[in-house]
Specification:
The chain has seven helices and 21 strands. The chain has 322 residues and is α+β, with helices and mostly antiparallel strands.
Length: 322
């Protein structure tokens, strides 16, 4: 047992760099031929209740092989709250620590901080469901060796919490934004997928998280000339923006699940009931927790840049079975 504990960190690093290895590209026509839709689209939407307003769906095809997990969140559910890491209080405290006593003012950009995994965020926030989101780098914003082994982060894209901009937008990337549907918290939220993180599109956003690219727009799957199968994290919306769908595709153990390409994710989102969808930071960053438990078949060794999730006021503990 002592020997196992001694070599466990080295084994985790080995798995991490193996997972981060580049995935081969595949031509669109060949992908469509080798992986027809019936290999990765669910025949039946067998949603399982998690708690009021939130349900889950788990898909597995051992012949593909493929495993993914989806969560449906009804954004008009009474008592539904959005929670995030980092939040504004955390960001202000980071800045106060750098500048000394007193008000630090706004959040300077780029915002550089020490982050933690979605796993920890899920437990500390009491989120019923939690997922990673915005792409990130290390202190310099790059995905270099220091970033891979450390926890100092700089988001490469948007993060807004309660109307406060914690990380600045990157226009070339997509975003998921939430606006309160009314003056009362009981009115819930309306969400929207933006193709680009622009000031115009972000007006009035109460919460917002950056991604990479839109994969579904107005019910049409977006095309990508470069296709690779990998772990994926993403979000999609119903036409009215009142139902959110989260998708986590496993791809770090190729023998069990090879992952999906962006267009394949777009087709999955459409099959789930989405009109628009985008991809967050995927690969080895993909994490999804439901009722505080890891929904994936493996643990991520990556410290994510940010996370977001949902909890219900009055629901103090995870009392709903998987």
């Amino acid at each position: 047992m002592a020997i196992m504990k001694k070599f466990l960190p080295l084994f985790a690093i080995f798995l991490f760099f193996t997972a981060c290895a580049s995935h081969p590209q595949i031509e669109p026509d060949l992908e469509d031929y080798l992986y027809p839709e019936e290999t990765y689209l669910p025949e039946n939407l067998n949603w399982q209740p998690v708690c009021p307003g939130i349900a889950r769906l788990d898909f597995e095809n051992p012949e593909f092989p493929l495993v993914y997990h989806a969560v449906r969140v009804e954004l008009n559910t009474p008592g539904l709250q959005i929670v995030t890491f980092p939040d504004y209080n955390f960001a202000k405290n980071v800045q106060r620590g750098r500048l000394g006593p007193g008000d630090a003012g706004g959040i300077p950009q780029p915002f550089i901080y020490r982050s933690h995994k979605t796993e920890r965020f899920a437990k500390e926030s009491g989120a019923v469901v939690a997922m990673n989101a915005t792409p990130f780098g290390g202190r310099n914003g790059k995905w270099d060796l220091a970033a891979k082994l450390g926890a100092v982060r700089q988001l490469v894209g948007l993060h807004i919490e309660n109307g406060n901009v914690i990380a600045a937008p990157v226009e070339r990337y997509a975003a998921l934004i939430f606006k309160r549907a009314g003056a009362s918290a009981a009115d819930g939220y309306i969400a929207e997928v933006l193709d680009n993180q622009t000031a115009e599109g972000l007006q009035g956003a109460d919460f917002a998280f950056g991604g990479f690219f839109t994969v579904l727009r107005d019910g049409e799957v977006c095309d990508f000339k470069v296709r690779t199968h990998d772990s994926r994290s993403g979000a999609g919306l119903s036409r009215d923006g009142r139902i959110l769908y989260l998708l986590a595709v496993e791809g770090e153990m190729p023998g069990k699940s090879q992952g999906l390409s962006y267009p394949q994710c777009g087709r999955v989102f459409k099959a789930l009931g989405c009109d628009d969808a985008l991809e967050f930071d995927g690969g080895s960053s993909t994490q999804l927790f439901i009722n505080g438990k890891n929904a994936l078949n493996y643990r991520s060794v990556v410290v994510q840049g940010n996370s977001f999730g949902f909890r219900l006021s009055g629901l103090m503990s995870a009392t709903f079975a998987r």
